[in-house]
């Protein structure tokens, strides 16, 4: 059942080239210039004319929501708010009929997300679900939705569900942007091609496994980790830190790299591994200076970089390469080494990777 892998988590990490392809199958055909997220059909007008998009989710799904915020705002120019379901539902939020709410949940059973949906529904908003489990409570409670089709996720730490969520949300953002005229046709076509190339690039990213295992052996006894990224890689930094803490029980924090100087930089000394997600994108120069700041304080630098990078390589203690892609699609690749890093560290520490202490696969209590 684990397909020859020692743990479900490792199997699920390795399944991602296929699960992402499954998620895009029947929806994306770059050659034909076609992208259809079927679940949106009946609500396309509401979506196109939304005053605001509100995303509600918890945990890893919330991180996928943060990536979506960047995507929807960049391509469709609609303001987005990303909310922890638990905070949203208890604070008497402002919700209007013109709001398009997207609820993201792997299990489709998360109690807080479900309650937040009911609240938004009662205020007249349109609710769209992005769920993995077919027929789940959240899938049933929403007006419409699209499944992620990642297949069953057994490991408690979410991996392939996360990349499938981002895939669906990316397709939604591109479709919306194109239809609203905020995303030019040539750029849209280019993005469809890039998106179609992602499964093969994920496969390539997975090839760094042995190298990541070596890096894990060097840092498995660290007491703390810091994960830093900017732009599209900021949510990836949060996700990398969450993956590490939940399965290895090492304290880790994710931060937008520029926030470092507002506090976390005080933590840095020669004992502190700092994982930078420093791919070649519009914030590359900025993150390079953040890396210099950490280096000057003798922090240990592990960097996820774009293939062929030289500047970061000259400063970092370790670099892990991922293939180049459009900046907006980078999270689908940059999260892969972070999943593997947390996996190997947890295994080396003798942790129960698939069923970490105190955690359940679906959180059906508030
Ligand atoms: C992290 C993890 C949790 C879930 C969260 C939401 O690896 O598994 O943080 O992401 O409990 O669960 P769903 O997506 O099922 O609503």
Q: Can you walk me through this structure?
A:
This protein has helices at residues 8-14, 16-24, 44-48, 59-76, 85-90, 111-122, 137-141, 160-180, 185-196, 198-206, 209-219, 233-248, 284-296, 331-348; strands at 28-29, 34-35, 52-57, 80-84, 99-105, 126-131, 144-147, 224-229, 251-256, 273-277, 300-306, 318-322. It has 366 residues and is an alpha/beta fold. The strands form 3 sheets. It has a 5-stranded parallel beta sheet with strand order 4-3-5-6-7, with helices on both faces. α2 packs antiparallel against α10, α10 runs parallel beside α14 (331-348) and α12 (233-248) runs parallel beside α14 (331-348). It is globular. Fructose -6-phosphate binds at residues 58-61, 105-107, 110, 113, 156-158, 242, 246, 362-363.
């Amino acid at each position: 059942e684990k397909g020859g892998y020692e743990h479900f988590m490792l199997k699920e990490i390795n399944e991602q080239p296929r699960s992402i392809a499954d998620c895009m199958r029947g929806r994306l055909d770059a050659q034909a210039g076609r992208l259809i997220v079927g679940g949106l059909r009946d609500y396309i007008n509401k979506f196109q004319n939304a005053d605001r998009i509100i995303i509600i989710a918890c945990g890893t799904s919330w991180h996928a929501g943060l990536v979506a915020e960047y995507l929807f705002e960049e391509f469709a120019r609609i303001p987005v708010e990303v909310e922890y379901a638990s905070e949203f539902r208890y604070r008497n939020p402002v919700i209007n009929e013109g709001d398009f709410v997207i609820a993201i949940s792997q299990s489709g059973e998360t109690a807080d997300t479900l309650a937040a949906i009911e609240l938004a529904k009662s205020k007249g908003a349109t609710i769209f679900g992005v769920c993995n489990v077919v027929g789940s409570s959240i899938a049933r409670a929403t007006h419409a939705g699209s499944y992620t089709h990642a297949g069953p996720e057994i490991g408690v730490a979410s991996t392939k569900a996360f990349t499938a969520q981002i895939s669906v949300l990316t397709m939604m953002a591109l479709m919306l942007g194109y239809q609203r005229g905020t995303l030019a046709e040539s750029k849209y076509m280019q993005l469809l091609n890039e998106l179609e190339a992602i499964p093969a690039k994920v496969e390539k990213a997975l090839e760094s496994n042995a190298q990541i295992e070596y890096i894990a052996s060097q840092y498995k006894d660290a007491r703390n980790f810091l994960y830093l990224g900017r732009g599209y890689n900021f949510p990836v930094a949060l996700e990398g830190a969450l993956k590490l803490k939940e399965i290895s029980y090492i304290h880790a924090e994710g931060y937008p790299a520029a926030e470092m100087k507002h506090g976390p930089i005080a933590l840095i000394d020669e004992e502190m591994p700092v994982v930078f997600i420093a791919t070649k994108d519009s914030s590359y120069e900025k993150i390079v200076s953040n890396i210099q700041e950490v280096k000057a304080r003798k922090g240990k630098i592990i960097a996820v970089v774009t293939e062929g990078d030289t500047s970061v390589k000259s400063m970092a203690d370790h670099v892990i390469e991922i293939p180049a892609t459009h900046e907006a699609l980078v999270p689908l690749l940059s999260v892969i080494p972070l999943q593997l890093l947390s996996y190997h560290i947890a295994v080396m520490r003798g942790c129960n990777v698939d069923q970490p202490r105190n955690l359940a696969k679906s959180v059906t209590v508030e």
